[in-house]
Amino acid sequence: MSGITGNLVVGQSGGPTAVINSSLVGVVTKALDAAEITNIYGARNGVEGVLREDFVDMRKQHPRELEDVGETVSAGLGSCRFKPKVEDCKNIFKIFEKHNVRYFVYIGGNDSALSAGIINKIARDSNYELRVFHCPKTIDNDLLVTDHCPGYGSAARFVAQSFMGNDLDNRALPGIKIDVVMGRNAGWLTAASALARINPGDGPHMICVPERSYTIKEFVTQVDKLYRANKRVLVAVSEGLADEDGNVWLQSEKIRAELQELNMLDVLNWIDAAGKLEDAAGGPKLDSFGHAQLSGTGMLADFLSAVVKIHLYREHNKKERVRADTLGYAQRSFAGVYSEVDLKEARMAGEAAINVALSGDLDGSICFQRHNSPHGNYVCDTFRANLEDVSGVNFPKGMKQYRPMEDRFITDDKFGVTDEYVEWAKPLIGKLPVKGMLQDIKVVS
Amino acid sequence: MSGITGNLVVGQSGGPTAVINSSLVGVVTKALDAAEITNIYGARNGVEGVLREDFVDMRKQHPRELEDVGETVSAGLGSCRFKPKVEDCKNIFKIFEKHNVRYFVYIGGNDSALSAGIINKIARDSNYELRVFHCPKTIDNDLLVTDHCPGYGSAARFVAQSFMGNDLDNRALPGIKIDVVMGRNAGWLTAASALARINPGDGPHMICVPERSYTIKEFVTQVDKLYRANKRVLVAVSEGLADEDGNVWLQSEKIRAELQELNMLDVLNWIDAAGKLEDAAGGPKLDSFGHAQLSGTGMLADFLSAVVKIHLYREHNKKERVRADTLGYAQRSFAGVYSEVDLKEARMAGEAAINVALSGDLDGSICFQRHNSPHGNYVCDTFRANLEDVSGVNFPKGMKQYRPMEDRFITDDKFGVTDEYVEWAKPLIGKLPVKGMLQDIKVVS
Q1: B88 tagged catalytic
Q2: What is the ipTM of this complex?
Q3: In chain B, what residues touch A333 (CB-CB under 8 Å)?
Q4: Cα of A373 to nearest chain B Cα, Å
């Protein structure tokens, strides 16, 4: 036994997922068994709760209730989008010292890893022995080092089931359907739409990811080409759809210039009018990490729908059936759709955080690695990475803290994902629902 | 045996649902057993396929495949939004005569019932013995006569699971969340959001249905009131949200006038700019039944988000966290979420259509009725209604062909649904996913 004796604080941070509570329960159940861990403090709303000293007693939770929480979507302790500043961290330590906190597990994505990294750095600089562990969680799947992230498999499953249904819907009532998928920096979740394909001809027929850049002309031309060929098109677009400078479309000067060039001035006026809406409500929405807020509006979907409609109307002098949906928050918090593998792995990550924290004076981020099984089955386990390699806390300027999709996963024409991606992702989402199709046998009378 | 001998045509029409294929399989399997029915023609894309003589041979489908189709979302035969004119119906009869079609089952909602009604009327006027049956299907649940409609239970389940997740999400990251739910004329599907409530304090905290009218001021005042009281609000709004004249908000002169009165001119400009987008793409979108197209854009959600944000900013001089989602097509065609009861009843409806059609020279619409079981269990079976009572084909001018929610299901303050509605709806959606909550026990140190 090489663990220091003291209390544990566990918190959840960032966007909820279907399985982040499974990690929480993994942390708590392992901690309950550990002689070194005295009290188990659940911080309400992540580090915000630490600063408020708002702690839930996790030891006093009923075991059966706790297991139910583990199978419940969203973040049971509450979450936050708060990045502690140096001053906040000093206050966090005062509180940790006061409560003899020696273990801190922070469950979250990139921003949460960074928060944990900062806290860890200050702890080490202060010679306060604190075992800080980042437990990975993000539907965006864009954490560094790990093979994949808890939360991704379930969100990917939701996206795949959405596209499976949307494709069948689009077969029944043909037209152009565009679905906007979450994922600001990376296309992992948008790529998961490809998992919906079972039979030849199944959509999505076109996938646009933030790892590539697109012009309006390229986008509408591709839709038009597919529509002429198949009489229907299902399109998956990342909310991070970007121009060649990496700026997202709705905030891109290049896209504005192109709208002018294409004489789509009505669309330009509409974007400007939408921008003024923001002003009227106190200015553009930025979260506290300085991100422009892309989720939570349907603007990109409506924008894409408009440019496609206008293009097709001009080309064919005909109003085509174009619809667009923004898959929305359901991607991260729909109750009742999750991947079994994801749920299990999220728990493993939580358990591993405690196991490793007890093993010595280490910090870390829990990561997943796959193994080649002799029979080709999916086999995966956890390992510890240095917190600084994931949190990016010491990264040189300009080095990205998130992981984009590998080139091998994106098709050369940039409008699709490769079979290699599909094979990679399949084990993470589990078996999809039944999809029966009628045989196209004509009646002979 | 009192059935006439001949062929059967079965078709699907209107928006897809999770269980319309179950009705199709019910029709086909019963027809396979009927000596009177020779060929079974599956019309591609409803009456459009009849006119094109585009028929799938349903006898030659593999039984196992057919059962899989029955469990697959959307409309396996393809659907349509086409309302046959008298000339079209004459052509349909020529085709029916040519193929000796004596049974016609049309699976769909209000518009499909009307189509079936028109065809039936012409058949009777022509003394052509044709047994026309409407098999009910609509996620909107707004068909006349029947207790409820196949498709509703599954869509209601999707909505309930969405709201359950959204409520947990909103608990974790508090703010104002607005979700726009399908249902142009009636609030049945929006009301289903209430089924997501399990514990005290659970959302949705506010529900707006097309059966009542709302002003912007009423809407934002209610949100503000709830937000002050609870620090978070989850709102369910029907896409059919209407002013006191029954006009939907985005097409309402009253709402435009109110925006001016409230000095929300930026919102007015944005709506106008959106209207011009439509013009640029060939004019406002109307489907072939003359409905303005409400589904398939995120405009209402963004509108509501904007007026709430502006109101709160003015009242509190603070940017509040407001998000809005449009639940979108997933409500009618998400693969893998369905209600067991709904799936079973959809099949029952299809089977009943054939059973009754074989029983004599009748037309009809298949309806559901509930029975009082001695132990309070949900017990339901089918009965035949006259087609004209459902299709509205002979209704006097001004009489509505759809069923709004009963007054007893809407709260007096018009911002909610009653417990009576919840009790009524519960058996239709089945058991919801686990929802575990942490006990709010503070650490005592």
Answers
A1: no
A2: 0.95
A3: 165-166, 168-169
A4: 30
Q: Name the CA radius of gyration of chain B, rounded.
A: 24
What integer pLDDT is reported at residue B294 of this predicted model? Answer: 46
Interchain proximity B165–A74, CB inside 8 Å: yes
Which amino acid, B244? E
Residues A325, B324: C-beta atoms closer than 8 Å: no
- Closest CA in chain A for residue B264: A280
Select from A7, A40, A169, A182 the residue whose CB has the most chain B CBs within 10 Å, as the one to mutate to test that interface: A169
Instruction: Write down the pTM of the prediction.
Output: 0.96
Closest CA to A117 of A410, A314, A390, A384: A390
Instruction: Please say whether the dihedral angle defined by the alpha carbons of residues B338, B344, B347 and B352, taken in this order, is positive or negative.
Output: negative
CB B279, CB A270: distance < 8 Å: no
Distance from CA of A396 to the nearest CA of B (A): 32
A281–B165 C-beta distance less than 8 A: no
Q: Does residue B141 come out as left (phi exceeding 0), alpha (psi in the -120 to 50 range) or beta?
A: left
Which chain A positions have a beta carbon within 8 Å of B16's beta carbon? 168-169, 172-173
Which residue has better confidence, A402 or B222?
B222
Q: Do A330 and B165 touch (CB under 8 A)?
A: yes
Check CB contact under 8 Å for B273 and A273. Answer: yes
Residue whose structure tokens are 């409008």: A415
Q: Which residue of the set A140, A142, A167, A243 is catalytic?
A: A140
Task: Provide the 10 A C-beta neighbour count for residue A279.
Answer: 11
DSSP string, B383-443: EEE-HHHHH-TTPPTT--SS-PPPGGGB-TTSSSB-HHHHHHHHHHH-PPPP------PBP
Structure-token pair, residue B225: 């009131």
**Across-strand partners of B371?**
B379
Tokens of A101: 């906190």
The predicted-structure confidence for B250-269, as pLDDT tens digits, reads as follows 989 999 999 999 999 999 99
* Distance in angstroms between the alpha carbons of the first and the last residue of chain A: 82
Mean pLDDT of A107-130: 89
Q: Report how many Cβ contacts below 8 Å link chain A to chain B.
A: 351
CA separation for the pair A122, A113 (Å, rounded): 14
pLDDT band of B285, cuts 50, 70, 90: low
pLDDT at residue A284, as a whole number: 62
pLDDT in tens, B333-364: 999 999 999 999 999 999 999 999 999 888 99
Q: What share of chain B is helix, strand, coil (3-state, %, to 5)?
A: 45, 15, 40
Check: CB of residue A141 under 8 Å from CB of residue A367. no
| CA angle at B280 for the pair B278 and B282, rounded to the nearest 5° | 70
Q: Over 70: is that where the pLDDT of A290 sits?
A: no
